Amino acid sequence: MATMSQTVILRLAALLLMLVGRVSASSLNLEDRSSLTLFDKQRQREIPVEIYGSPEALQCRPAETCPVAMISSGYGIGHTEYSFLAASLNRLGYLAVAIQHELPSDPPLSTRGDLFATRAPNWRRGAETIRFVVSTLSKSHREFDWQRPVLVGHSNGGDISAWLVEESPDFAAAVITLDHRRVPLPRRLSPRVLTIRASDFPADEGVLPTADEQQEFGACVVAIPNARHNDMFDGGSAELKRHIVETLEAFLGDRVCGAVAPPAGAVVQPTSVGQALAGQPHR
User: Fold this and answer.
1) Is residue 48 domain-resident?
2) Which of 222, 216, 208 is nearest to 180 (CA)?
3) For residue 51, is it within any domain?
4) CATH code of 153's domain
């Protein structure tokens, strides 16, 4: 039986290893990123992507592939503005790929009429873009498992992600949305579902699973008090991003619904970019 001093030493050693691993991963995440512009010949469309992580940093090989997560940004926010999510996913061993869905030549996102009908072409195009990016990168990045990626999307990017798994139920292992509001989430056991909700605007009727459906299908709906829809990106407060990351990491770590304590009385203040977006229709 180990003595008390030996037990203390072992615990300190384990803590040191854990901290070293986290620091190493964090420092690598800041550097191991690359920018690419893919080209879809069939649609004659450029697709800018930001790739966070590398086979070396994540210790991936063709024989032991690492998982993949696809990040879709909110409308009006650049695809490189979600590095806090990418860093979190890297820590969990995921390659993170952020996609720029909107191009200057695209028509603006509809803000009038039946939004589900008028925005459907945007979501359909976004779903096809994710499929193209996954297919293309799977040929050049063979150290990663592209079969069933995790889809992560904020606002309209979450709508795109939900649309894709409705069209192709077996495409993704999980869907994680940050306050998307228009496209209903799947009511199935697979893919796994997590939606993190802000508090300033509700989702449309039928978008979120009911309490009974959450119980039946294991879907997770996590609300953050006083959080703003437009602040769920790099420009949001440290407190808001911390809560999002803890919830995401708990969910992907197989803890039911990201069981983390909410920030006590936290009030998320709008940031400069959030203020700039505040005058726009909430997507």
Assistant:
1) yes
2) 208
3) yes
4) 3.40.50.1820
Domain, as residue range, for 162 = 25-278
81 close to 235: Cβ distance less than 8 angstroms: yes
Give dist(CA 274, CA 280) in Å, integer. 10
What does the pLDDT look like over 135-179, one tens digit per residue? 999 999 999 999 999 999 999 999 999 999 999 999 999 999 999
Q: What is the pTM of this model?
A: 0.83
pLDDT tier for residue 258 given thresholds of 50, 70 and 90: low
- Which amino acid is present at 91? R
Residues 219, 207 contacting (CB under 8 angstroms): no
Q: Is the peptide bond before 62 cis (omega within 30 degrees of 0)?
A: no
SS (H, E, C) 190-201: CCEEEEEECCCC
Number of domains into which the chain is organized: 1
User: Regarding predicted confidence, which is higher, 278 or 134?
Assistant: 134
In a domain, 8, yes or no: no
Q: Supply the angle between the helices 115-140 and 156-167 in degrees, to the nearest 10.
A: 80
